Amino acid sequence: MIAYPPGPPDEFGPKRLLRMSRDPLGFFTQLRRDHGRFVHYRIGPRRVFFLADPELIQDVLVKQARSFLKDQGLESTKPLLGEGLLTSEGEFHRRQRRLAQPAFHHARIAAYGTTMVEHAERAASRWRDGDSLQFVPEMMRLALGIVGKTLFDTDIASDADTVARALGVAMNTFTLARVPFWRLLLYLPVPSTLRFARARRELDEVIYRLIRGHRENGRDRGDLLSMLLLAQDVEGGTGTMTDRQLRDEAMTILLAGHETTAVALAWSFYLLSQDRAAEAALHDELDSVLRGAPPTADDVKRLPYTEMVLSESMRLYPPAWAIGRRAFEPVPLGGYELRPGDAAVMSQWVVHRDAELWPDPLRFDPLRFEPARKAQRHRFAYFPFGGGPRVCIGDGFAWLAGTLLLATLAQRWRFELIPGQRIAPLPRVTLRLKHGLQLVARARRPSAGHSVGQPTVGGAKGG
Q1: What whole-number distance in Å separates Cα of residue 25 and Cα of residue 237?
Q2: Which own/partner pairs from 215-218 qualify as long-range (CB within 8 Å, at least 24 positions apart)?
């Protein structure tokens, strides 16, 4: 085998690390543009293989998945998430996934649909025609309320501000993984570390309070936490979860469950505000299918264009913008070989915007996801939730929530972008909006021949 694929020349480690930390999306985009779809580079003594070829991505995530561990980037979340499904490895991960899987069964997720729509209608009813909305916090509160009720059977509204603030602080800390000796920084009494420790304590107080309440209740309340408490690992023979294991899983679900949905909705409504034709097509589908009634989980299959809008939004602005793996044994890949310790990095941001895979890739076009066009693409030309045995366990929950919330809000409102804003992505654990998003809410006027419930009156380019 040839030693390494092409790539940029070696450079002083901190210099490359600094460029990656400042602009990882630009760094990965430049790798693809300058060196192709299979690129090798170094960060200090560490070898990294950047993959932008769908076939190679499938090899790593599916065909040779057992030869890889999660990469260092996710290890940086362990101080907050512990050994949850996102970060754990090996037999422990397989055991936890067995215990959690029933909570994400299709029938169970579908039962959450009513709660999702109720929360969305409640949020939509608070707005007035002409309101200027800080849209990202609006979506965060909405998604957090849904996760609290469906997955923890609690009204988390009283904790919403605490959770949102603490998660924001914790998310900023995750960027430490790009800094050498980042683990040591967590034990130094510097301001950022002290803020993180306080945020973790605040989140732990919320999570452990939920666990105590569920243990005292002792019955299946129809939520994820109940199922995890009652689950027995019959196959593995390891019994039930400890409070610490429950805490780690709950913290992971709390973060991933609402953050992904919220940012996907924010980007979706931003894109719709810039493409009135797509917005009109969405409204026409909602009016003709729902005829003013709230959507249900059963309606999702009758709302193909709504789902296509969400799919295209997550193509241009994927909530998970990169995935990393680390080889723990020699792995042949694309005519080369990864050695133990070598990293493989795959970026949804880059692959989803590749002109060879997606013609006119920066154009917002939901019709790319028509079934016939989807069938012509490689499975891993689009992988918003990863793939293989470590595919996000909550992807079904995210698709249902995203589609139902998009339908519920768009049925009653359209949104206009306030001019003069800087719209830019902020790559953290998810792809946030760097400067936020201000939208003006406008009451919907239904298409001719249709009737929708009225709220109280008082072609986009991806950047």
Answers
A1: 44
A2: none
When the pLDDT of each residue in the chain is averaged and rounded to a whole number, the result is 87
Helix axes 160-173, 135-152, angle to 10 degrees: 110
Burial 327-340 (b: 16+ CB within 10 A, else e): bbeebebbebebee
Helix or strand (DSSP H, E) at 208: helix 191-217
Angle at 385 between CA 351 and CA 46, to 5 degrees: 65
HSE value, Cβ hemisphere, 13 Å, CA-based, for 188? 9
**113 torsion bin: left (phi>0), alpha (psi -120 to 50), beta (else):** alpha
Using CA atoms, how far apart are residues 337 and 298, in angstroms rounded to an integer?
Answer: 47
Nearby residues of 436 by Cβ (< 8 Å), 6 or more positions away: 134, 135, 136
**Token pair listed for 305:** 């264009």
CA distance to 278, 371, 407, per residue, from 285 (Å): 11, 17, 10
CA distance 428 to 80: 15
pLDDT (0 to 100) of residue 232: 56
Give the β-pairing of 343-346 and 46-51. Answer: parallel
Residue that is written with structure tokens 């709390």 in the block: 254
Closest CA to 77 of 264, 254, 225, 262: 254
Backbone angles phi, psi at 434, to 5 degrees: -60, -40
pLDDT-derived band at 456 (thresholds 50, 70, 90) equals very low
Total residues found in the chain within this entry: 463
pLDDT in tens, 328-353: 999 999 999 999 999 999 999 999 99
What is the Cα–Cα distance from 413 to 124, expressed in whole angstroms? Answer: 8
Q: Which two tokens stand for residue 309?
A: 């809008």
Q: What is the pLDDT of residue 453?
A: 43
State which amino acid sits at residue 58.
Q
pLDDT band at 233 (very low <50, low <70, confident <90, very high): very low
Domains of the chain by range and CATH? 13-443 (1.10.630.10)
How much is the pLDDT for 99? 75
User: Whose CA is closest to 258, among 383, 136, 433, 102?
Assistant: 136
Q: Is the pLDDT of residue 4 over 80?
A: yes
Provide the pLDDT confidence category of residue 452 given band limits of 50, 70 and 90: very low
Average pLDDT over residues 79-89: 78
Q: Are 27 and 21 in contact (CB under 8 A)?
A: no
* Dihedral (Cα; 104, 109, 115, 117), 10-degree rounding: 130
pLDDT exceeds cutoff 70 at 73: no
